[in-house]
Each structure stands twice: as C-alpha cells, then as structure tokens.
What does this fold into?
Amino acid sequence: MVLKLTKNKIIFTVLIIIAIIFDGWLIYILYHSLTYPDKYWDWDNIQTNNDTYFPKNFMWGTATAAHQVEGNNQNNNWYEWENLHKKDNISRIHNNDKSGRASNHWELYKQDIELMKDLGVGYYRFSVEWSKIEPKKGIINYEALEHYKKLCNKLIDSGLTPVITLHHFTHPIWFEKLGAFEKEENINHFIKFSETVFNYLAELVPIWCTINEPAVFVSQGYFNGVFPPGKKDPLLAGHVMKNLLNAHVKVYHHLKSLPRGKDKQIGLVKNITQFDPLRRWHVLDWYFSKKLNDVFTNSAITFLSEGIFRFYLPGMANINFVNKNAIKALDFIGLNYYSRMHTKGHFNSSLPFTFELRKDKDIQTDMPYAIYPEGFYRAIKSISQINAPIIITENGIADEDDSHRDLFINRYLYALSKSINDGYDVRGYFYWTLMDNFEWAEGYKMKFGLYEVDFNNQKRTLREGSKSLIDLINKPSFDKRGYIVSIGDEAPDLELDYIDGRRVKLSDLRGQVVVLQFTASWCSVCIQEMPHLEKEVWQRYKDKGLTLIGIDRDEPIDVVRDFQKKVGTTYPLALDLGAKHFSKFAHKNAGVTRNIVIDRNGKIVFLTRLFDKNEFQEMINKIESLIQDS
Ligand code: GAL
It folds into this structure.
C-alpha cells in the first residue's frame, strides 16, 4: 500500500512537472507565434507595378565597397586572409579566389559613373580603403585621398552625390596586428583616420556612413570564423560588437564637432537578417531565434535608442554596458536587408542550432537564403524603433542566371513602397550592387551586379533583370501631398464619362480654363468644399470660358447621382472606376479632395489638397487671372 502510494505520487509529480514544462512551452510558443506571425503576402493578387511609387526627392543609388571593386588591395586584413589563411592547405575563400584586380574600379571609375548615369540614380555609396589612405600607422598617403577626391568630383560633375562609408569590413594590416576592434583603445586610430578623410572630403560629401554592418563583421569574423580574423569566440564577439558600436558613437560625435560636421548627415549601417523558427511549433527553434535576434539586431537598436547594450548568449557571453552618448548618435540609420534565416534548435550543447533552407516553400537566391520581401518590410519596421530617418544602404540579389532578379526587384521595392505609404520615414534606396565583384568568402561566384562583369576583360553589360530597377527609378514620383504631376506639366489626357451619359476628352477642352475636382461621396472635406466650388467657381466663371468637372473616385453611377443631389451642385460629375484617372495625377492611395487647375494650353497651373480656405482663395485668384488673360 505504502509502496503503491509512493509510486502514484511519483507518477503524479512527474506528470505535473511535464504539464508545467509543456504548459510553459506552449504559452511561450503561442506568445511568440502571436507576436511574430509568419508574414506572407498574397503575391498572386498584388500588382507590384501598379502599386509601387516613390516620393519626389527620394534618393536612388547604388552601393559598392572598396575591397570588393577597386583592385590591388594588398595591405589589409582581407589580403592576408585571402593569401595566408589556409586550412589543410585549402583557402578560406570559395574556389580559392583572391580579390586581385577585382572590378578594377580604381582605374575604371569614370566609366562606372557613366553606368550609374544610365541607371538614372542620383547617389553613389562607396567605401574608402583605410589601408590605402594610411598604409602605415600615422602615415597618410595623400595620393590615395586625392584619388577619392577625384572620384567625388567626377560624381558631382555627372550630377551624382557621393556617400562615403569609412569602414566596410577592411582595415590596414597594422591595425589588425594591434588587435583591431578587439581592443577598446584601438578605437582612437579609427577616429583619427575618420577625421583625416572627413577633413579632406567633407566639402564634397553630404552623407557619411561610419561602419558597415557591425553584426556581420562580428558574426562572420568572430562566430563562424569565415571572415578575418577567423575566430570562433562568442565572448570576444560580444566585445568586438560593443567596441564597434562605441566606435560609431565616438566617430559620430567627433565628426559632428568638426567645422563641417553640423550640416552633414552621419549614420551607422545596420544589417538586419531575421532569425525565424524553422518549425513554428518547436520551442528550441523559437528560443534560439530569439537569442540570435537579440544579439545581432536588438542589441544595436536598444543601444542607439536607449544607450543600453546587452549581449547575452546563455553559457557563452553576457556583456552589459551603458553609454548614454549613444542615444540618437546618428542623423540617419542605414539599413541593409537581404533575407532571413530559419533556425533549427538541437538538444546538443556543441551544436545548439543550425540554419536550414525551405527549398520546397521559398524561392532561393544563389546565396544561402531565399527571396523574402515581407522581411524587408519587417526590417524597416524594426529599425524604425531607433526613430531616425532610414536610408536603405544595401539590398540586392545574387542571381547568376538572372532568372529572379526582376521578381526580386519588383517585390522588394513593392515592400519598400508599402512601408513608405504606411508612414515609415525611408529617404532613399541603394541597390547592392552596381556590378559583379569580389563577394568576400564567396569569392567571385556570387553575381550581385546590375551589370555583369567579364573578369577577363573587365567589360560591363547590363543584365536584363536590372531593367525593372531602371523602370522604377525613372517612374514618376509623388510629392508630400501625393501628387505625381507638378505645376508646369502638361495635364495627362483623360476620356471622361459624365453621369449624364456624355463623354468628354480633356484635350478637346483646349482653349478653356479647366478645373478638375477629385471627389467622393464618403469624403466629408469634399462635401464641405463642393458648395464653394459651385458658387465661387462654377457659377461665377462657367460662361466666361471655364469648365469645372468633378471626378468621383471609384464609385458606381447610382451612388454618384445621389451624391450630386445631396450636395446640391450643378457642375458635371464624371466617373472614375478603378481610380484610373486619379492615378494619372496623384499616387493611387492618396486622398481626395483635390483640385487641378489647367490653363487654356493644357498646362497645370495650380494644385490644391484638402479644403484650406487660404489655398482655395489663391486658386480663385489664379482662375480669375487666367480668365482675365483671354
Ligand atoms: C553585405 C555587405 C556587402 C555585400 C553584401 C552581399 O553584408 O555589406 O559588402 O557583400 O552583403 O552579400
């Protein structure tokens, strides 16, 4: 009996423990699944072409990095890595590649600027090679600086704006030998170098990126060991991350304090790769995903927004640090986004997690990750927590056979356009990359270029798939009020179906002053404005050479007829099913009411938005002067 009771007790206790554990796990999984739903958009029903628009003054650019394109870098950490670091006599670089002459951009930069012009971009992000500028500690090579000055001048003469990155994965061998960013005291060397470059080039360069992707530098160099210095040491990784972020903060404040600093935009470039659970029901997948997101992304976001740095990997690293100077130590945040990783957890302390592709579900790129535009939107949302203007400093696809580049561009830029529409403050987009180049540990295998490079003769050829980027860059953009058109433009022609059955072509109204009012029955501001249009425009000028047409946004004829009765206006109303007419003048998702005044020659001369009494009066004055002029 006693024995039985004890046995039952044991079974009961075990069951309770299991229940608690599983309940806890269940709640953990449920909580995370609800907080981070796996986002997928219904691409079959998204017309990326129709729904992708960008604001006027949006910065379009391409990006490169010195070591990947210039050629002849023989004095930096990567040169050593490519040439000396061998494991079992096998190079650490794919195919035993060496950066060597790379894309010879050092010599061919003028021709490359022509390629940029052909794309229609207005900006170029490139990095300066520290090892060329300061080949020995404290010794500055002014010829190298002069080269970058020439590059900047050529860009400016060609109508492009230079954007400089001070540290893009490479630094001189002497700096590496000192321990690079493993040691806090070495940050001073980077500050001095940054100051030298800044003093030399700031008059030509309005936008500066301090450090490119601290998390990639750390994860590849100190975690996976595939970038120099090839270490696998999580605790050291945490310290390097801390030093890189602090280096950014110090360089930011230092450059800002220099005479030219105030009016320059200085920021950090942060990559985001989301870590998502491979199996959404598996607690370990969730657990490690969360840890990796915290360490590689959230640590930097919290540091730059709250000044608190936490790098915690259970049993491996636990670094806590506060630096209040880090709060808002940037004028913009650069975001590099490519894709996400799927984490699989294991009950194995020597291999706690791995990453797996879902080849059956996702469209793969040539890199070990899939096309995931939804993640681009998510990344913009995450980085917006820093509360600084966002510039997309890198985004692109490795796609040797060019079969997905077009789809990639259309979908990722749709995601970007959607994020801007939803209110995220994204100011620009730099495509990675202008032309094929040395892709770090992947050597020359990865073809990220908008232009293909034949490395035998350095010939550049535009890839077919890149043309969709050119189309998007050159597509009409919209202003703050949502207008695609501007004053001075010729009004797009429309064939209007009036609700009384008449059909009128806008171009047939040449010789008259035309006012188009975009309106809708559900729009209260329209209803407020319409009696004024009736009285102060239509009744006053209809017999003096003016046509006023209300164009109703995407409502059926019965609704529009009732609408007209309700507001009591008599000027003609026309239909606009699918907002086709509207979207020739304004961004499709922009609002009504708005008036477009067109002169007798078909030119747009005045634009209003909403019903602002002063603006409305200015419009009347304009109409009056146009009528008088005849
Ligand atoms: C980024 C890096 C670039 C480029 C790109 C494509 O992490 O900043 O230099 O290599 O990835 O993989």
